[in-house]
Amino acid sequence: MEETENMKHFTGRELPDNALKASMADGTPYVLPPWRVNDIILLAIETLSDVDYYRDDFDYKKMIREQGIKIKKFSAFSPDNLEKFRKISLSRWEEGICALFPHPVTGEQCRMIAYNENRNSIECMQIVFHEYAHIKLHHTQQSINGEVEATCFALAMTIFLLLEQLFHVGRTVVNAAGKPFLVQTIRNAIKQKEVV
Ligand SMILES: [Zn+2]
């Protein structure tokens, strides 16, 4: 079945013959409309700018933890527990888990991200951002579209942080023109009409 094949694709169990041909259950290709990509780019820079991501001591995991979201490594779980969390995960990706569940005692909503720590540091960051995206984008269930959105968000976050780490793009702009300028300029740029 088409749906099952796509699921395998996104869980990494098996790649389709031609990923470009894969589509959602109703035949819609799993591409995002360009305005949605723009929304996600903007959400990424707003999220980062809110916490002054150009600071020397910026720590992306701390940023997420300070929003009340727990971050765990896969190795913190027994295989059984990991499997339980996989079942309730909003994510279809095997590299990470995003779980929202009531606290067993207080009933309070818990939000948890778990990631496969057997990856290099940039890959771990992408996994954590992908799972974080499911929360930021208010996904409520597993979906192929949700996977594409989460990966898009993780990509945008990673690129902003890499450019910062390597070239201090954000810091340079904020020092020269102020914090509102950074986000506003990106917002204006992605809303600009094409010049023909
Ligand atoms: Zn996911």
- Helical proportion? 40-55%
Q: Give the averaged pLDDT, no decimals.
A: 88
* SSE string: HHHEHEEHHHH
Biggest β-sheet: count, sense, barrel?
A: 3 strands, mixed
Organism: Treponema porcinum
Protein name: IrrE N-terminal-like domain-containing protein
Which terms summarize this structure?
about 200 residues; three-stranded mixed β-sheet; 8 helices; 3 strands; disordered N terminus; binds zinc ion; IrrE N-terminal-like domain-containing protein
Characterize the structure shown.
A three-stranded mixed β-sheet has the order 1-3-2. It folds into two domains: 1-30, no CATH class; 33-191, no CATH class. The chain has helices at residues 2-11, 34-50, 60-65, 79-88, 121-136, 144-167, 169-177, 179-191, and strands at residues 69-73, 96-102, 109-115. It has eight helices and three strands. α2 (34-50) packs across α6 and α2 runs antiparallel to α8 (179-191). By secondary structure, it is mainly α. The longest helix is centred in the last third of the chain and has 24 residues, at 144-167. The chain binds zinc ion. Zinc ion binds at residues 91-93, 130, 134, 147, 150.
Tell me briefly what this model is.
This is IrrE N-terminal-like domain-containing protein. This protein is mainly alpha-helical.
Secondary-structure blueprint of this entry?
Elements: H1 2-11, H2 34-50, H3 60-65, E1 69-73, H4 79-88, E2 96-102, E3 109-115, H5 121-136, H6 144-167, H7 169-177, H8 179-191
Parallel strand pairs: 1-3
Antiparallel strand pairs: 2-3
The structure holds zinc ion (ZN).
Residues 91-93, 130, 134, 147, 150 line the site of zinc ion (ZN).
